[in-house]
Amino acid sequence: MKIAVSWISILAIASMSSAAAQVDKFANVQIKVTHVAGSVYMLVGEGGNIGASIGEDGIVIVDDQYAPLADKIRAALKGVADKPVRYVINTHFHGDHAGGNIAFQKEAAIIAHENVRKRLATDQPAEALPVITFGHDVNVHLNGEDISALHTPHAHTDGDVLVYFTKSNVVHMGDNFVRYGFPYIDTNAGGSVSGMIEGLEKAIAHLPADVKVIPGHGALATLEDVKAFVAMLKQTRAAVEKGLNTGKTVEQLKAENVLADWQSFSGSFAKADNFIDVLYEDLTGAQNGKWREHN
Ligand SMILES: [Zn+2]
């Protein structure tokens, strides 16, 4: 009996400390601010990178991480300039990028592609939804910037935008460009490898060569980094397509380590085998969902 009681206590303590760890996940997060160029700053905390145009007219932020971090994000912005957050642009609907909407919506107009609002509306309260939506592109004119949000159809999701700060010459690419290795492509939410390639190629063609790139996750980058990422997407897709065309199964392609040449992209988030599943789904339209089960 005594033993049983102590087991219960141990379990109780264990579950309490894991709940505390959840809270601590955000309690220990610090928001690091980096000046990128002109009026644009990058904020790194937990979740997707935030881009911010900060100036006389106020603040526009691109993505807002998680709601529990909102006060820290406000404090970090205040450290640059004591101006109100007037607009929030969501690059897409995922919680690590748009989770802060519920904290910012009362003070700022949240702008997003109409599919972001649609997807958030399935499980989020009205207070977390974008209040201004658009079908393809939208421009925000503030701080002498023409801030252009350009929709990339069926890329990381079906609601992504790339946000270009034209005067400062900085682009926030959301999760269409990430630096943690093979990307996550949300095929359940209208995403596709081909859409990601198409969207990025269009951007590469239009952006100045010296544009500074804020990725969805990871360190500041250049257009050359984006080009290398697109090349990887095209080459890995071609490698898997070639294998499938010769009648090989997904399991055979994995056993043969068909993406061995891109091993450096096999990161903590997605291994080469996971990405073979994504490419297979993308090429065949199959929904085996194997990769998603791992995430
Ligand atoms: Zn995402």
Features of this protein?
295 residues, alpha/beta, Metallo-beta-lactamase, Chain A, seven-stranded mixed beta sheet, six-stranded mixed beta sheet, disordered N terminus, disordered C terminus, binds zinc ion
Do you know the CATH topology of one domain?
Metallo-beta-lactamase, Chain A
End-to-end Cα distance: 40 Å
How confident is the prediction overall: mean pLDDT? 91
Share in β-strands: 15-25%
Tally of DSSP β-strands: 14
What characterizes the major β-sheet?
7 strands, mixed
List bound small molecules: zinc ion
Order of helices and strands: HEEEEEHEHHEHEEEEEHEEHHHH
Structure, described:
With 295 residues, this protein is α/β, with parallel strands linked by helices. The chain has a domain at 28-222: Metallo-beta-lactamase, Chain A. The chain has helices at residues 2-27, 70-78, 95-98, 101-104, 114-121, 193-206, 223-245, 250-255, 272-284, 290-293; strands at 32-37, 40-44, 50-55, 58-62, 65-66, 85-89, 109-113, 132-134, 137-142, 145-151, 161-165, 170-172, 212-214, 221-222. The strands form two sheets. It has a seven-stranded mixed β-sheet. A six-stranded mixed β-sheet has the order 9-10-11-12-13-14. A hairpin with a 2-residue loop joins strand 9 (137-142) and strand 10 (145-151). Helix 7 crosses helix 9. The longest helix is centred in the first third of the chain and has 26 residues, at 2-27. The radius of gyration is 21 Å and the shape is globular. The relative contact order is 0.10. The model is unreliable at 1-16 and 289-295 (pLDDT under 50). Zinc ion binds at residues 92, 94, 97, 156, 175. Residues 92, 94, 97, 156, 175 line the site of zinc ion.
